Amino acid sequence: MNFDLNEIRQQITQVDRSLLKLLSERHRLALDVARSKEITQKSLRDVEREQQLLRELVQFAENHHYQLEAQYITQIFQRIIEDSVLTQQVYLQKKLNQQREQNIHIAFLGKRGSYSHLAARNYATRYQEELVEISCDSFSQVFEQVQAGEADYGILPLENTTSGSINEVYDLLQHTELSLVGELAYPIKHCVLVNSQQNLTEIDTLYSHPQVIQQCSNFIRTLDRIHIEYCESSSHAMQLVASLNKPNIAALGNADGGNLYGLQVLKTDIANQQNNITRFIIVAKQPIVVAPQIHTKTLLLMTTNKQQVGSLVDALLVFKKHNINMTKLESRPIYGQTWDEMFYLEIDANINNPSVQIALEELRQYSNYLKILGCYPSEIVKPVDVT
């Protein structure tokens, strides 16, 4: 048997290229599935079919003695299924909303390399080949850029698995006329970024956005005599640390962004939670229509009559009555009205569904104010459970 390393690597390269060709073919077939479901109006996801497929693949590998662990097979094909679902979703949405085939302008918080910037790129790649990037210094400026027509879309973080909801964004949603037109989840991988290979003990000042500082609070507590400098975004922090070029300072951000500014990674995996994910929303001037086959969410803004006992409970029971799943309930104060609350209700529902329209009409009976902030496709594809 030949154990020449160069030859083995050449064989691996050939196998990898064959895998790419097969993945491309599967991607093409996913589009054919979308065209079929466009006609039949069947849902994009068939959970039972996905579960059956994963079990059959694990069993097939076992029967043929492929020596591949079941978890390994499942994780790979769950990612492939996710790509198929999103590929079909983009196809249907483009057909339904007649999306323009040209450059799109997206506004985001921070400079190049911020998490919002990377999430914007992630969103744009599924719909367009080229992205015109508009960096903003604040969340409010993102809204303003879209409202003024300078940007087609704005991308904003709404919640994080470590630090929770981004209240400033929720508060801005109270006063905007923009519509939510999409959402996506982006993995957050914080690290310590420096100008040179100094030791962690030399660092006495950390620069980053308050959300990043909060998400890395456990790691920061392990450091001695650390001073925190808050910045408008993690990308601002990286740019500042790069320009100051001092051995005692560091930025907390992501490795890809740090690379743009010539920074080196000193330490990785510093977030409080390893599974650190931020959910971003996409806003635009005009609402969109969501294909009925797609997993759809709707965000509602509502106030209830606080003089009426149990008004919020009565409102929420409407969703149970109509078999609508509520995925989030968030309350925020109403400025200028002491102790009054505005409620954000997120539901798994398409407002174009007649049964959902009936539920919303009933909901109005228990609310003083009800506004639909957006009905949008979700790009968060939850993997099926095969246990």
Automatic annotation (TrEMBL):
Organism superkingdom: Bacteria
CDD domains, A to Z: ACT_CM-PDT, PBP2_Ct-PDT_like
Biochemical pathway: Amino-acid biosynthesis; L-phenylalanine biosynthesis; phenylpyruvate from prephenate: step 1/1; Metabolic intermediate biosynthesis; prephenate biosynthesis; prephenate from chorismate: step 1/1
Residue intervals of the ACT domain: 300-377
GO molecular function, one term: prephenate dehydratase activity
Locations listed in the record: Cytoplasm
InterPro entries recorded: ACT-like_dom_sf, ACT_dom, Chor_mutase/pphenate_deHydtase, Chorismate_II_sf, CM_dom_sf, CM_II_prokaryot, CM_P_1, Preph_deHydtase
Keywords: Amino-acid biosynthesis, Aromatic amino acid biosynthesis, Cytoplasm, Isomerase, Lyase, Multifunctional enzyme, Phenylalanine biosynthesis
Limits of the Prephenate dehydratase domain: 105-285
Catalytic activity: chorismate = prephenate; prephenate + H(+) = 3-phenylpyruvate + CO2 + H2O
Gene3D superfamilies the record matches: 3.30.70.260, Chorismate mutase, Periplasmic binding protein-like II
EC id: 4.2.1.51, 5.4.99.5
Domain (Chorismate mutase) ranges: 1-92
Role noted for this protein: Catalyzes the Claisen rearrangement of chorismate to prephenate and the decarboxylation/dehydration of prephenate to phenylpyruvate.
NCBIfam families: CM_P_1 (TIGR01797), PRK11898.1 (NF008865)
Protein name, per record: Bifunctional chorismate mutase/prephenate dehydratase
Source organism (scientific name): Seminibacterium arietis
Gene name of the record: pheA
